[in-house]
Design a protein that fits this description.
It contains two helices and six strands. It has about 130 residues and is mainly β.
């Protein structure tokens, strides 16, 4: 995991990343599976479902490209385009942020794909009020 404090639109922020640039496709290029008729119902594929990402995904942000060496990490491309990079909210002092977990699929509409919650039996329901 790597982190860096930056200024984003004039506000302090922290960006973190899992530093797995070999699997970074860019948010618009990451392979995904469509899950229904709704074009917004999709899942980004997990890392084990995709191969290595291209070294140059063809997108550039603020004159920066996807990092190809460790000393280039957390540049403008990472902050604006990389799906693996997470940023705190503006001025998020003390805010806990986590890197995006691509060990499993990430659903764009997760509420449609949650496993059903098991129903409580009568005794459990009485205990939980």
């Amino acid at each position: 995991m790597i982190a860096r404090q930056i200024v984003y639109f004039g506000q302090p922020a922290v960006v973190i990343c899992d530093a797995n640039c070999g699997k970074a496709w860019g948010i618009h290029g990451r392979p995904k599976a469509r899950l229904g008729e709704d074009p917004d119902d999709f899942a980004y594929l997990a890392d084990n479902e995709v191969g290595e990402a291209p070294a140059d995904p063809g997108t550039y942000e603020g004159g920066h490209a996807k990092p190809t060496h460790p000393d280039e990490r957390l540049n403008k491309w990472c902050v604006r385009a990389c799906e693996r990079c997470t940023m705190s909210s503006s001025g998020g002092a003390g805010q806990v942020i986590e890197a995006t977990d691509f060990s499993r699929r990430l659903f764009n509409q997760p509420w449609k794909h949650q496993p059903p919650t098991p129903a409580l039996n009568r005794e459990e329901a009485d205990r939980h009020g």
